Amino acid sequence: MKKRMCILLALAMMLGLNGCGSAEVEQEEEVVETVSPEVVPEPEPEPEPEVVIPEIANPLTGLEMEADALYNRPIAVMLNNHQVAMPQLGVSQADIIYEVPAEGGITRMLAVFQSVEDVGNLGSIRSSRHYYIELALGLDALYVHAGGSPQAYADLATYDVDNMDGVNGGSDAAIFWRDADRRATAGYEHSMLTSGEAILEYLDGGRYETVRDEVVDSGLTFTYEPDFLGESATDISVKFSSYKTGTFTYDEDAVGYAVGQYGGDYIDGNTDETVVVTNVLVLEANIWTIAGDTEGRLDMNLSGYSGTGWYFYGGEAMEITWDKADLYSPLTYTDADGVPLDLAAGHSYVCIVDNDSSTVSFA
């Protein structure tokens, strides 16, 4: 009997344990995944553009150039700017363009090249005025023109200017020709052309010294890291007269000013592209009509004088002072504090305007 009780007790205990096990609910631990926020790396700052200073710099632009042209005498070419004579040829390759009033409200350009190699055709070529000769002499340039005013011819002789004349130049005429299409559409006086190749071939004959012992003193210094100038100037208007207004519109991609005139773009007929320049300078001078001149020709205070003006670069503007010490000195520029002005390396467009009748506006 005792043995039976033990068996029953053991059996009960086993049943009890099984019963507890069947009532137990096994719970799985909930796993909560934590997602870390995506870490977006901060953009690395764009590297500053590398400043490259050319080993051999063009004295008129500060840009890289071939060593064999460094000691050249520049070549200064008189260009017609009458509306019917557009487009001009070769002007986009000029290192410096000077635009200056002539009689009747028109302007003409003096395009200056340190080298005319590979420039192509140039023109149309027009007659000289004495103040353009002053600009050429200030750079010791060889001067290309087609005729001239009485005072211009007097100065060419007085100062023994090395020049090539397409009208009264004798053997010089070999480098010029009349373009048939321009003669038919624009007129005889607007049809004279020359070329860089023709000029160089003529000069190879030894008519003039073409190489200097020293690099020409352009009166210019250049910077490859230009500072901001101050006033905003993305759109510039230079009114020379009721006939001619020039415009300069800043092109951020080109880091330069697209030039316009006569209600459209200023086009180089060699490339059919708009002329774009890095620097624009507007120089105010005293300009007047020569008393008794039946053609209404002009004179101005240039050599031996100074004046005020504006310098435009990078969509901004600053006031400047210009100076031309004498006939054989180049134009020089200083800022408002009298410190020599560093131009941005590149091509320059210089407007000389009457300080009374001309207007300059920008925004």
Tally the helices.
Answer: 5
Shape: globular
> Helix- and strand-based class?
alpha+beta
Mean pLDDT: 91
Strand content: 25-35%
Radius of gyration: 37 Å
CATH superfamily: YerB-like
What number of structural domains do the residues give? 1
Largest sheet: 11 strands, mixed
Task: Give the proportion of residues in helices.
Answer: 10-25%
Q: In terms of per-residue confidence, which ranges show pLDDT below 50 for 5 or more consecutive residues?
A: 1-26
Number of strands: 26
* Spatial separation of the terminal alpha carbons: 121 Å
CATH class: Alpha Beta
At CATH level 3, the topology is YerB-like fold
Q: Name the CATH architecture.
A: 3-Layer(bba) Sandwich
Task: Summarize the structure in words.
It is a single chain. By secondary structure, this protein is of the alpha+beta class. The chain has a single domain (67-362), classed as YerB-like (YerB-like fold, 3-Layer(bba) Sandwich), CATH 3.50.90. 15% of the residues lie in helices and 31% in strands. The chain contains five helices and 26 strands. The protein has helices at residues 2-23, 130-137, 150-158, 180-185, 196-203, and strands at 75-79, 96-101, 107-113, 121-123, 142-145, 163-165, 177-178, 192-195, 221-223, 231-232, 235-239, 245-251, 256-261, 264-265, 267-268, 273-274, 276-277, 279-285, 287-289, 298-300, 305-313, 316-324, 332-334, 342-344, 348-354, 359-362. The strands form six sheets. Strands 1, 2, 3, 5, 6, 10, 18, 21, 22, 23 and 25 form an eleven-stranded mixed β-sheet that branches. β15 and β16 (273-274) form a beta hairpin. The protein is globular and about 85 Å long.
